[in-house]
Design goal:
The structure holds two protein chains of two kinds. Chain A is of the alpha/beta class. Chain A contains 13 helices and 19 strands. In chain A, 36% of the residues lie in helices and 18% in strands. The radius of gyration of chain A is 22 Å and the shape is globular. The chains are: A alpha/beta, B alpha+beta. Chains A and B meet through helix 11 of A and helix 1 of B.
């Protein structure tokens, strides 16, 4: 590995695949990124040499597995700029992390309390809050999306009140690519005493993070969207906030001492990690964040911004193409959603697939946003460290042929 | 090949797309995979499907599947849709559709069955 783009493609074995006779052009990293050899070998090496259960087995392999698992926590802490390792809780992914928080916070809600979400949330950051509000008689409010795809911060200000218990918002929209003003959201929410959960599924893989400075109560993300394995995610929680919460789920590992009728909870972070954790996933995630850190997140972000700019520039010139989300790549994540007149997104994606080009199509688990935009779905190209300008050109050329392709 | 000539032809020029003035059976549903929505309206008499139309916001496969389905059932007994299978539709579409798009093929069939069973449309 030396650099982004062409400089690191050799690290990703899957990128040498041929699909329908064409070289694979993988532009679906927002759904799930590909994995470098370093991650694959870390996971394989763990299973081949060091696997055992963690925190309980007093033998060599148990010690090694525990060291690897807890070492991964330290690596993730450093990568996201968290204050302490106690703030890094491993989950199965973003969805589980949000559900965990929604259950913990949900059981403290009282009728009339309010949760604020936004219209651009992934279903993962909407449904758990719908369920929490339904269970407790709380009220769910959604900040509208306006203009090219920005949050209506005036409406947000009107929604905030002493009744607001929690604000849940995407760091980066998985459809529009909008990078939301998260520092402002945190600051204004805290001013009324509300907690803040930021969905970092599309943030952590692409942006340099300093979570200690950001100050959100919860920041959640998935390993598989940032070069790591599936089945591992992270809930970063501010220690002061985590210490006020009862655990969501019970089991082994999350307790200190147990009697038949009660138990004493374990310390952070294990209090929120019942059962055998995703050890191999954590090992792979460590390799992934170390890989990204070596590339340098500033460089990763600049590279992806360049790809986004090329993609926007190419698509905007094609007749019949509609682009969704901000046009300015400086304020946009590594994702471009678009539609082609007369071609359903799924048909468009299937035709692009015939040329080896992998894009996502559909509602992107953001149906309220689709309803807001007045559409059923879009095509979506999304980028990662291994994508190149040549791949963007290939996409643009193929999109030119989509109109009238059926 | 996913986009057979039959799918392309029925997508470009569907024969049974539209609505009926006074349907006595109608149902619509969504494909959770993509959010596509299709509505099918039928008129029935003497134990038969007399006429039927489909409309919605759907991909080429779903549109074509709805079209060949209605072509197959119009004039036939009311219980025919319950006996049709995905394989019947694929044969009529002359298409090789993978698992991830199979719901596009079968959605019109389940919507037609819903209409004939008198199901209520969820809002």
């Amino acid at each position: 590995m030396s650099s982004v783009g062409d400089g690191c493609r050799a690290d990703f074995p899957i990128l040498s695949r041929v699909v329908h006779g064409s070289p694979l052009t993988y532009l679906d990293s927002a759904a799930s990124s590909q994995k470098p050899r370093q991650v694959i070998e870390a996971v394989t090496g763990y299973y081949e040499r060091s696997h055992a259960n963690v925190h309980r087995s007093i033998h060599t392999l148990g010690e090694e597995a525990t060291e690897l698992y807890e070492g991964a926590r330290d690596a993730v802490r450093a990568f996201v700029g968290a204050s302490s390792r106690e703030e890094i809780i491993f989950t199965r992914g973003t969805t589980e992390a949000i559900n965990l928080v929604a259950q913990c916070v949900g059981r403290t809600l009282r009728p009339g309390d309010e949760i604020i979400v936004t219209e651009m949330e992934h279903h993962s950051n909407l449904i758990p809050w719908q369920m929490a509000c339904r269970d407790r008689g709380a009220v769910l409010k959604a900040v509208p999306v306006i203009g090219e795809g920005f949050l209506d911060m005036e409406a947000f200000g009107r929604f905030l009140s002493p009744r607001t218990r929690l604000v849940a918002a995407a760091h980066v929209s998985n459809v529009l690519g909008t990078i939301n003003p998260v520092a402002e959201i945190v600051e204004r929410s805290h001013r009324v005493g509300a907690l803040v959960l930021l969905d970092g599924a599309q943030g952590a893989p692409h942006l340099s993070l300093d979570l200690a400075a950001l100050g959100a109560d919860f920041y959640v993300f998935s390993g598989h969207k940032m070069l790591g394995p599936t089945g591992i995610g992270v809930l970063h929680g501010r220690r002061e906030t985590l210490e006020t919460l009862e655990p969501a789920w019970g089991g082994g590992e999350m307790i200190k001492e147990v009697w038949i009728d009660h138990a004493q909870w374990n310390d952070l972070p294990w209090r929120f990690e019942p059962g055998t954790p995703p050890i191999a996933g954590a090992v792979g995630l460590r390799a992934a964040v170390e890989y990204l850190a070596k590339l340098g997140m500033e460089r990763v972000a600049a590279h992806e911004r360049d790809l986004t700019a090329r993609c926007l520039d190419g698509l905007v010139r094609i007749p019949g193409v509609t682009i969704y989300g901000p046009r300015n790549p400086e304020i946009k994540g590594a994702v471009v959603a678009f539609a082609v007149d007369g071609i359903h997104p799924h048909d468009g994606a299937a035709i692009l697939d015939e040329r080896g080009i992998a894009v996502r199509a559909g509602h992107h688990c953001a149906q309220p946003l689709m309803k807001r935009l007045g559409i059923v779905g879009t095509l979506r190209a999304s980028f990662s460290v291994y994508n190149t300008a040549a791949e963007i050109e290939r996409l643009i050329e193929a999109v030119k042929g989509l109109r009238g392709a059926l | 090949m996913v986009y057979s000539d039959r799918i392309r032809e029925r997508f470009r020029r569907p024969r049974y797309q539209g609505s009926l003035p006074a349907p006595d059976a109608a149902f619509e549903d969504v494909n959770p995979l993509c959010g596509d929505r299709i509505r099918i309206e039928c008129r029935t008499a003497d134990g038969r499907i007399v006429d039927a139309r489909h409309r919605g916001d759907c991909c080429a496969i779903c549109t074509a599947s709805a079209d060949v389905l209605l072509e197959r059932v119009i004039g036939e007994p009311l219980d025919l849709p319950s006996r049709l299978t995905a394989a019947d539709l694929l044969e009529r579409l002359n298409a090789d559709v993978g698992a991830s798009r199979m719901k596009c093929v079968t959605l019109p069939l389940s919507v037609l069955r819903g209409a004939l069973d008198g199901k209520e449309v969820a809002r």
